[in-house]
């Protein structure tokens, strides 16, 4: 499966679980995206948001027990789309971001691809 017309876009990935981060990175590459940067904690993510160019971000909601909101705030300021990955459902999203797309963990390749495409198209 490839990302229709969106192949080659870059993704910033924030996930504290190393194995999950590696799996999602593999899924992104299979879909035709490239991983611009990966972060496993909030401070690293904040630094990378400012230092990295990317087209979209995938953000774990709970990173080492901390809510991802400061990272989402910076990405919103940059004007980049982002989606959340969560095991808690939409009720687990930060309140100010409950209108953003969210992937329920664990998610499949097809769901990841469709969610990214919709977010990149502004849907």
Automatic annotation (TrEMBL):
Pfam families: Response_reg. This is Response regulator. InterPro entries: CheY-like_superfamily (IPR011006), Sig_transdc_resp-reg_receiver (IPR001789), WalR-like (IPR039420). Residues 10-120 form the Response regulatory domain. The modification 4-aspartylphosphate is found at residue 60. One of its GO terms (cellular component) is cytosol. One of its GO terms (biological process) is regulation of DNA-templated transcription. It comes from Bradyrhizobium rifense. PANTHER family: PHOSPHATE REGULON TRANSCRIPTIONAL REGULATORY PROTEIN PHOB (PTHR48111:SF40), REGULATOR OF RPOS (PTHR48111). It comes from the Bacteria. GO terms for molecular function: phosphorelay response regulator activity; transcription cis-regulatory region binding. Keywords: DNA-binding, Phosphoprotein, Two-component regulatory system.
